[in-house]
Each structure stands twice: as C-alpha cells, then as structure tokens.
Amino acid sequence: xxxxxxxxxxxxxxxxxxxxxxxxxxxxxxxxxxxxxxxxxxxxxxxxxxxxxxxxxxxxxxxxxxxxxxxxxxxxxxxxxxxxxxxxxxxxxxxxxxxxxxxxxxxxxxxxxxxxxxxxxxxxxxxxxxxxxxxxxxxxxxxxxxxxxxxxxxxxxxxxxxxxxxxxxxxxxxxxxxxxxxxxxxxxxxxxxxxxxxxxxxxxxxxxxxxxxxxxx
Length: 217
Fold this sequence. Notes:
Layout: H1 3-6, E1 17-22, E2 27-31, E3 37-38, H2 47-55, H3 64-78, E4 87-90, H4 97-104, E5 109-112, E6 127-133, H5 142-151, E7 153-162, E8 185-186, H6 189-199, E9 202-207, E10 210-214
Parallel strand pairs: 4-5, 4-6, 6-7
Antiparallel strand pairs: 1-2, 2-3, 3-8, 7-10, 9-10
Helix pairs in contact: 3-4
C-alpha cells in the first residue's frame, strides 16, 4: 500500500487526512478540516526510545535562558490569572521551571509528566489553569489528552499551550521542528480554532507559538 493510499484519520478531529510528504525517517499526513499535520502511529518511537530522547534534554529550573523562553507563555498567562489561582503544569519534564516560575508569582502549580512526575492523582481534580509547554507536539492521541485536560479545568479557567505552529505546507519538508523524532502532532492556527469551537472556548493567540483557551464560566 502506498503512503498516499493510507489516509489515516486525524488524531485531533478524526477526519480523513491526505499524504503530505515524507523525509528519510517517516511520512506526514495533513488534515483538511483542522489543518493538523501528523505522523501515523506505525512510525512513533517505542516508549523506551522516546524516554531516551527526553533524557538528553538539560533544562534546569534556574537556567535564565530557559526561563526567558518559558516567559513567552508565563507572562500572558499571569496577566489573566486572579490572585491565588492554582494550576497544573502538564508535561513538566525533568526540570519543572515553569511550575517554579508561576509559584514564585503566587500561583501554586502542581506537576505531571508521563516519565518524570507520573502521579495521576493531579489529573483527578480541577485547576484554575493548566499549562503545557512544548508538549502537545509529542502527543499520539492529542484529542483524548486535551479533552482530559479540559475536564480538569475549572469554569473560567485557562489552558495555556506553547508549541510551534504549522504556517506553510509548502515549506514543511524543510521545517526543523519536524526533525525531532518525538514530534508527531503539528498544530496549525486552525487546529486551535477547531478546538475552541468544540469547547466553546475563548481563544487568544499571544505569540507565534503560544495560545490561550479560556473555559466558559
């Protein structure tokens, strides 16, 4: 069967997709409805190899450069949070700098990570805000995972996501962001528009890689 004939469903909106391109490692498919580009499941890394890739990251909590990077998400979110709001950083990694930054500003922030902080108890309650920085591009089942997070939000709460967005299909083959073997779900602006419509959420793009969604009160 050719790559063009596969047409795996979109992992976000479940609509059929079309073959977009292939590099030396894997093929990519594009959804006409929500504009997500994804890598089909047959080409996802096994968990052991995925974890090995993450272990190569060296993101320290007190690293000024890493904090400046995370401030692209933290700054617009903090401007919208009420005093004392409590949150969850989903996919915190081995160095939960974002949670520390938010806590330092008076917003206690719990952490969850499949490999580094796997206590699912934090997913059994509701939060005033949830952050997810450089995480959603790693999700094999983005719709299911984001739905779970949405249900963990209080009414009026914020879901803040940082991920680089697909902006031009014609240049996708040369996009450096797709070369990370753990990156498998590539959101576009339309992907978040689709999510906001499903959730009846307020949607704000505060930067080229940051999006905020507010749950209806």
